[in-house]
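Sanity check. The docking grid for magnesium ion depends on where the pocket ends up, so I'm generating a full predicted complex first rather than guessing from homology. Inputs follow.
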Amino acid sequence: MKSQQIRKQFLDFFASKKHTIVPSSPMVLKNDPTLMFTNAGMVPFKEYFLGQKTVVDKRIADTQKCLRVSGKHNDLEEVGKDTYHHTMFEMLGNWSFGDYFKKEAIAWAWELLTEVYKIDKDCLYVTVFEGAEDDNLAYDQEAFDFWKQYIDEDRIINGNKKDNFWEMGSQGPCGPCSEIHVDIRSAEEKAKVAGKSLVNQDHPQVVEIWNLVFMEFNRKADGSLEKLPAQHVDTGMGFERLCMVLQNKQSNYDTDVFTPLIREIETITDNEYGTNEKIDIAIRVIADHIRAVAFAIADGQLPSNTGAGYVIRRILRRAIRYGFTFLNTKEPFIYKLVTTLSKQMGENFSELKAQKQLITNVIKEEENSFLRTLDQGLVLLDGIIKNTHGKEVSGKKAFELFDTYGFPIDLTALILSEKGMTLNEEEFSTELEKQKSRSRAAAVVETDDWVILDDDPEEEFIGYDTLEAKVKITRYRKVSSKKEGNLYQLVFNMTPFYPEGGGQVGDKGYIEVSNGNVIYIVDTKKENNLIIHFAKSLPKDTSQILKVAVDEKQRFRTACNHSATHLLHQALREVLGEHVEQKGSAVHSKNLRFDFSHFAKLTVDELRDVEDFVNARIDSKIPLKEFRNIPMETAKEKGAMALFGEKYGDTVRAIQFGQSVELCGGTHVQNTSDIWHFKITSESAIAAGVRRIEAITSDATKDFYFENNRAFFEIKDILKNPKNPLKAILDLQEENTVLKKQIETLLKDKAKNLKSDLIQEVKPINGINFLAKKLDLDQNNVKDLAFDLGNATDNLFLVVGTEKDGKAFLTCFISKNLVEEKQLNAGLVVRELGKLIQGGGGGQPFYATAGGKNPAGIENALKEAEKFIL
Ligand code: ATP
Ligand code: MG
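Predicted complex below; grid placement will be based on this.
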């Protein structure tokens, strides 16, 4: 059976059991402070389990794009080495939110596997939770009794907390689970070793395919469990593993989910899959990682240096380096796989098809830049090897290469072993651990449990219509971190505060407490459907009605920037073309940032056209038309476009200014004329085919023009008010170039003359030609002079002191024959003498330099120099 059909049968089956089929949520999470990626099918529904959102559909089924590369569920290092863990995979799931429980979940799972998919019952094993004393949890007798109706008791295995108690993270909804395992070994092997003994033992042919989780607890901050208000079912079946079973394969990579990619990798790199273990691993790594990276980019997450973007960059780099090392690919090639992938998965995930070009461009550029890093790293590593005495390379040096230059440590180890050398791995691990504990210490956040004052699940947002309100605190908790100290997170029964989201910053403001005192709200964010206000302290009486108010000025400036962002989007599509798509935006009170797909730098004329377009709409005083809670279809008819990687509810909000219509939850001005003026402050590239515009509006533009004007007048003043200031600056620059050249020539001449003078001053001491002198030269010229003198004079021991910008420098040159015959070492000389100028340095035995901060010590150092040869 083809994978397409396997997926369809799953969804059809649960549709027949009255489940609503929903599309996959994005894999990259935006605006979720607790998680970067969807790592399980339950993530898009976690607010239902927490009772923080009202359930509409009690039964849902879907296939969810998951990524397990960070946090509690991290499979990255396994991927490629084994045959059944992926970074990105599809999780098929059925859900009950307070509806059916263990009985139906077990019955339907069994029916689907054995009657629809017709998996041989004799291959199946199931596990049930054995209980856990530390959590005061009993054996899951209920699950056992249901399973017993379908499967031999002998095939029901007890499982411990690690395998049979599912938790998303260290806090949150959780519960016992029952897993279904399949034994796909040959009859011969089954006869030798019983399948039962291999369940949950990391055997590649006895694998877990489906996990049925019975959510009924919430794990609190102190580690204790409390019952959830209702019982839920959350199941997850690995789609790729299911395909392996149904297609009678021994590896996920031999199913039709992966074979087209693997054939393509074989062709492009001229390697054969299935002949050599190392090559096989590399091919699997690449076939897997291209999916994770392509889906992430399609969800709007570009590779970058921080956060989720950095995780994506690391995955791609892992693929590149496996190719580089084991498939011998020295040119970009992974980007070429995007065509195959989008052909194969674009049917079910249209975001891949629609963004194929962008994904290709971004991956190609990442490949190019990382291959350059690898090249540089190889040169640096060569240097390290040359400077290593003995066979072992310092772990510190390797760490530097890894940390500063991004050169992979396993590549370092491999290259060293090829040269018969080793790496001091202990030293490397120590450095790595030091760095990790530094960042861990900075990142530790302690979150207390919610103190619930009023169990009101829906916190009404009233901030579109008012900036002030009288509210009640419904729950609060304390959060402490090194970075921000203690903060209180407050939730109200209703709130005018806009929580960070859709690119717009969260509102700031204050709470009025007794006798005119206020508590500042420093930020507002949304977490699991709750709007959370961050305050430095807690009102003394948490049960009283409180007046809260949003910082009006900040909100207004932010609204100006948000509305301007919509006009900018419209302008870009008008001026540059319909290919422009939003790839990210950040709306603050000070400025706005907008990222969009476009292949070339914008010309000055284009930028001007874009500005003019926006300003024309500001001048036309277009009133805001806001449509709340309208069906998506209606919004689309009005001309709104859904963005990839965004999660939309059943109904949406549309914001219209004339021809500009966008799906948007943000806050806006009432009329475009409020924006006053729009000015682009920068335009740049952030990835291949993705540009960034930064702009300002309103008061900020006044300041911008004022500051620019002032700078201009100051420049003119300094230039003595020329008629044409631009020409005056160009003239100055040219004059400067000419003068620089002249000085260079003069300095060279001076050094030449100096050389003949200095030769006269050389003093023979113990058969060594000695000279120590302070000179008025810069460091480059000193070096030339030292080598010139060295060529002209045998047995030279030279120390030169120089001074520049309040700093002192020492240079030591020793003729090579002296280094050997008399065991002299310029490096040691400058290190010793460097102390006298309060500095240090080093170099090679025949030439070394030191720098320090005490020019007054130069004379002394020169006097001391003689000691080295006496
Ligand atoms: P395993 O022990 O095999 O890593 P798990 O206990 O981490 O699995 P769950 O968190 O229960 O798995 O996820 C539900 C299902 O998703 C599993 O039964 C499996 O079929 C699938 N699955 C989990 N992790 C991966 C992965 N990295 N790649 C592919 N499929 C996976
Ligand atoms: Mg796992």
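Relevant for the grid: The mean pLDDT is 93.
Also worth noting: Residues 75 surround magnesium ion (ligand 2) (CB under 6 Å).
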